[in-house]
Design goal:
One of its GO terms (cellular component) is cell outer membrane. It comes from Flagellimonas chongwuensis. It is a multi-pass membrane protein. Residues 122-226 form the TonB-dependent receptor plug domain. By secondary structure, this protein is mainly β. It is 5% helix and 54% strand. The longest helix is centred in the N-terminal third of the chain and has 21 residues, at 2-22. The protein starts with a helix and ends with a strand.
């Protein structure tokens, strides 16, 4: 009897198990781009938690799926989303093949920067430009700072011919007007402004989002001219292992290495290392000064992603950055550091960062974001020492709420800033707390119309109450036509020495004319976005904008009133940045892709009724990228370049023989990438094809390079240099006459290895 019951029980288990398996199905397939496998494409069942990613061969497989009807959504950066309906019967093993269409500028990605919440780029009321790692690979560089040279309206500006530190200009506005974020955290500012865009392995970047125009109502005082948000990959989207290294003919070496590690079933770790080295002094322009600053840099990055119930977000990331850079006279060694025998500029930088996001375990969408960084800088500029420490803490809580036609966002933030240095401008350390609250409402008042209004309140103990309102209107004319209007105000407190290294380099005396007042701005931006899909498979995208920004109390360095001084003062007048910009993207069925952008801008300062073009600000810019893939050869060719129009340059006086305006100049590059080896990519090419450098047409670039300590300069009773037989132009040592890189033509070769 017991034996019979055992057999009946066994038969029942087998029957029920078979019935359970019979209720499930599987789906597999391949995702391609023009016949080529597309790895790391996301394959998801809409409104479910079912999903996976394709492997290196573009293959995916999903098993144990409950029978039923589903909508399959396939997405990948740089491609138009694809979706299709499928019906899975019990026990079926269905196979589908999917081909994604390239979207040259990726118009449909999810973006977060414009409104602080995830939204389709097409649905965002704030225009956001998005750039993927594929874009960065078209002209490989050792840092994001250099890679942005091929973004229309964005220009990396080198601020010193000796130390080669720089910042990012957006629409002609100086670097400090641009806020740099990492994963949405505003931890790159002050001392870190120069270094925030270096040391992040490009292979760990998910995408770069750029907003041109003020975003102070969401991000605070530093987002006056625009912002750059570097979004790092989640572990799910990252390869198991990658290594990318390249070298140039100038002796530059760059290495990125990273890995995804599964710590547990619900914990994933992403680790990356970037190392860059350049230690070969070069002086091609014959002034006995290094043309390119020597650098030894290492950056360590890690990001932890934790899986939680209901897909709530929890991530922690950290980065350590160290750099030793120097430039100066060719015979300089560290033994001369800080002395007055041989001129050199040496900068030791040590920086670490921590940032995280945690979605609270409640029904409402409450997200806590936090970050902290510590930055130490030990620098000498000739015999001038600059020692500085900065610590910035930030915490923010946001509540994302939808109520009818209103998409609401409420938030509160607090920012702590500690800064201390050894300059005359800092008599005691700053310890500043800035609490903030903000609110935003996007109201869809008609099927194709929405209006966004936002307001931020900050309390700064130095300047009191600060209000920054913002408004945006979006008209979705059709699925392929969108018109936007954005307006807002900005507020910025200037950190003089951390933002302008020209205040420390050279022999000019720094004069702070009065107590500097905060800068304020008003901005209006018009944007039109158009997509065209032709019958033959050609895609055309047009993104055009017109912008106007007016500043009051603007603080600019005055190089002209006294050639021996840099005078910092609030402008007694107005400063205006205005212009038009357009990007055109074309993708042909033949795999030929064109990306072209151009900007015309007028950036001027008006004081006492006199209007002048702002120094070191170009009138026109253009960028391009022409790409073609030879599929039979598994070879891709990329031709990239930029063009910049005339800039007014800082001269030292009426006798200065250097050109007052720069020429129209261009940096052009070509690269070939071979993908015929499993897991490997070989790439190489030539940078600066035209071998352009700024010393063309100029007698010299660095003034008095032969006398960097001004020992042979004669001054009058007012402290002005006077013309003498050995100084006929009445100059002092000054390396601030710089508007482009001194690095000429060079070849490069690299290798990428990726395991998915």
């Amino acid at each position: 009897m017991k034996s019979l019951r055992k057999h009946i029980t066994l038969l029942w288990i087998v029957f029920t198990s078979s019935s359970c398996f019979a209720q499930t199905a599987s789906l597999s397939g391949k995702v391609t781009d023009d016949g080529e496998p597309l790895p790391l494409a996301n394959v998801l069942f809409k409104n479910t938690e079912i999903g996976t990613a394709t492997d290196i061969d573009g293959i995916f497989e999903l098993t144990n799926i409950r029978a039923g009807d589903y909508v399959v959504l396939v997405t990948s950066l740089g491609y138009q989303p694809y979706q299709t309906k499928i019906s899975l019967e019990a026990g079926a093993n269905k196979t589908i093949n999917i081909q994604l269409e390239a979207s040259a500028q990726s118009l449909d990605e999810t973006v977060v920067t414009g409104t602080l919440k995830p939204v389709s780029r097409l649905e965002s009321p704030v225009p956001v430009e998005v750039y993927s790692p594929t874009f960065l690979k078209k002209n490989p560089t050792a840092s994001v700072f250099d890679a942005l040279q091929n973004v229309n309206g964005v220009r990396p500006q080198i601020n010193c011919n000796v130390c080669n530190t720089g910042d990012i200009h957006i629409n002609g506005l100086e670097g400090p007007y641009t806020l740099v974020l990492i994963d949405g955290m505003p931890i790159v500012s002050g001392l870190g402004t120069v270094y925030g865009l270096t040391g992040i392995p490009n292979s760990l970047i998910e995408q770069i989002e750029i907003v041109k125009g003020p975003a102070s109502s969401l991000y605070g005082s530093e987002a006056v001219g625009g912002l750059i948000n570097i979004i790092t990959k989640k572990a799910l989207n990252a390869p198991e292992f990658f290594a990318d290294g390249f070298a140039t003919g100038w002796g530059e070496y760059n290495l990125d290495v990273g890995s995804k590690i599964s710590v547990s079933d619900k914990t994933n770790l992403l680790v990356g290392i970037n190392y860059f080295n350049y230690d070969v002094p070069v002086d091609n322009n014959g002034d006995n000064f290094t043309d390119l600053t020597l650098q030894d840099r290492i950056s360590l990055f890690q990001k932890w992603d934790f899986e939680r119930e209901d897909n709530r977000l929890f991530s922690l990331a950290g980065r350590f950055f160290y750099e030793d850079r120097w430039g100066g006279e060719m015979q300089w060694t560290p033994d001369f550091r800080g002395g007055d025998e041989i001129y050199g500029e040496s900068i030791y930088t040590r920086r670490w960062e921590l940032l995280g996001k945690y979605q609270l375990p409640v029904k409402e969408k409450l997200l806590l974001s936090f970050s902290y960084n510590d930055h130490n800088q030990n620098s000498v500029y000739g015999d001038t020492e600059y020692l500085a420490d900065q610590r910035i803490g930030f915490a923010q809580l946001t509540w994302d709420k939808t109520a009818g036609n209103h998409d609401l966002l409420f938030g509160s933030a607090v920012r702590y800033n500690h800064y201390n240095d050894n300059t005359p401008a800092t008599t005691e350390a700053d310890n500043i707390w800035i609490p903030s609250i903000f609110a935003q409402d996007e109201y869809s008042f008609a099927p194709k119309h929405s209006f966004l209004a936002g307001l931020r309140y900050d309390y700064d103990q130095r300047h009191g109450n600060i209000l920054t309102p913002r408004a945006a209107y979006k008209w979705k004319i059709s699925d392929n036509d969108i018109f936007r209007v954005n307006a807002g105000t900005g507020f910025r407190v200037v950190n003089l020495f951390t933002e302008d290294h020209a205040a420390l380099t050279g022999s000019r005396e720094v004069i702070i004319a009065e107590e500097l007042k905060p800068e304020r701005s008003v901005n209006v931006n018009l944007n039109y976005l158009k997509k065209i899909y032709s019958d033959n498979g050609t895609f055309i995208g047009l993104d055009a904008s017109a912008f106007y920004t007016r500043f009051s109390n603007v603080i600019l360095p005055d190089y002209e009133t006294n050639p021996n001084q840099i005078i910092y003062d609030n402008l007694n007048g107005k400063s205006v940045s205005q212009g038009v910009s357009a990007n055109l993207d074309i993708v042909f069925p033949s795999s030929f892709k064109i990306m072209v952008g151009a900007t015309w801008q007028d950036v001027s300062n008006t004081e006492n009724g006199v209007t002048q073009q702002q120094i070191l600000t170009e009138s026109i810019t253009a960028t391009w990228n022409l790409s073609y893939t030879f599929h039979a050869l598994k070879l891709t060719a990329d031709y990239t370049g930029n063009l910049y129009g005339p800039m007014r340059l800082p001269l030292l006086g009426d006798l200065d023989p250097r050109s007052e305006y720069s020429p129209t100049w261009s940096i052009q590059n070509i690269q070939f990438t071979y993908k015929g080896l499993n897991n490997f990519e070989l790439y190489g090419g030539i940078k600066n094809l035209l071998d352009w450098t700024p010393n063309r047409g100029n007698p010299f670039i660095i003034a008095r390079a032969n006398d960097p300590f001004d020992r042979e300069v004669t001054f009058d009773s007012n402290g002005n240099a006077v013309a003498t037989p050995n100084n006929p132009y009445a100059l002092t040592f000054d390396p601030s006459y710089v508007y482009g890189p001194n690095q000429g033509i060079r070849g490069f070769f690299g290798l990428r290895y990726t395991v998915f």
